[in-house]
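Trying the structure run again after the queue cleared.
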Amino acid sequence: MKLLTAQQIRDWDAYTIRHEPISSIDLMEHAANLFVKQLKKIVKHDRTIKIFCGLGNNGGDGLAIAKLLCDENFLVEVFVVEYSKNRSTDFSQNLKRLEEKIEVSIISIHEKSILPIIHQSDIIIDALFGTGLNKNIEGLALKVIQHINQFSAYTIAVDMPSGLQADIFYLANLESNKIIHAHQTITFQVPKQSFLHAETFAFVGEFTILDIGLKKEFLDKVDSKHFYMDKDELPQLKLRNKFSHKGTFGHAICIGGSYGKIGANLLMSKACLKTGVGLVTSYIPKVGYTILQTAFSECMVLTDDEILEIRNFPSTENYDAIAVGPGLGMNEYTIKSFYKWISSITKPCVIDADALNISSQLLIEHHDSFRFPKHAILTPHPKEFDRLAGISKNSVERIEKQIHFAQHHQVFVVLKGAHTTIATPDGNLYFNSTGNSAMATAGSGDVLTGIIVSLLAQGYEPKDAAIFGVYLHGLSGDLAVKNKATLIASDIIEALPFALFSLLS
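Done. Tokens:
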């Protein structure tokens, strides 16, 4: 789905109201209903719910939510923060509706008011400001935000944590003491651009997206180069039929490993085969031969002439796709051989780990002559990317560099993280929606490389292989972590067939 600016989101609301047709107050009521359904999954009736409402439409959402919670027999206290004399029409109408509920407490907070005591057992719903916020919060509203943040009560934000702005370019100037620190954000229709960065997790927490029925045709009319990938956005799966055979699904070569790091190639090669490639060949130094042949009997093995590291990269003309890097090491002869070899690559390829570190060194030493294969897929973690493109002050600057790097070198850059991003040669950026923190474990990136090269060998275009591979990697991690506190990379590999099967249903 397209990621939109705050103004585009407001335009989408207006477009839906105009073309559905539906009144803004009824759309707000619908959103509130869905919010309460989600809330009931996590909040029990024995908790007091304190709802802090601003005077705009986000506050109107809060009032509509309060009314519905009263209907569900929750104990609700509503605090209207009078930071201005201006009230939105929908806010005023919802306040009038709520005042008819004699069982709900509605308290106005003014500049000289004593702010309410918040107990640890309370549930706080933040409905002060939404996507319409376009300036720093000050005065009474700021005082209320700082009051809420000093308590440890579980806090849920309506659409946006108050004080955080939706658009990505505001992230460079975050002021933690001016933003609600929500444990969870229940947002409407699409995630906001600012949710998808490490710097904002302290404010957003985990987020849930509710489809409130805004008209999808609006998305065809708006421009966006940022996307959020979910199951419905994936490329069409290549299915096996009765007469398929191993030659139908390609042959990948996985190049990597050195003394003490043969396991990196083993993980990459296993993930490659588990993802459905017909054949996989592992290319390793001689020291790894017995390891690969013993630990992975389904894999074919070729060895370098050298014992401890790779110095003589293989011919790749007989393979459908190439992966290089995991466990490769930074031996000076490996670097020299890689420099000569990489320019000969014409097949789809994935470049990872030490192959990226070698590339970053070669970009400096041979700036004018070093070239990545066209439309190669690079899979750096943030430190590896910083070596390639320079150190960034924050994730926003790093993403800007990622997009520029992909365009300049005509490659796909998969920047690994909580919401792994895929930058394409045409300047688009895709945020991934699967995965979890338990996947931050040794070898997880090697597994991702194996998945992507498998998809390339099966005939997926580089863009589709990168996007689908990242999604599948995260989905496998999500399946593997069920009923577990931690993962190892092999757990992700074992979950791959089940993740693929779930996408077929």
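The first helix runs from residue 6 to 19. Worth checking whether this holds up in the mutant runs.
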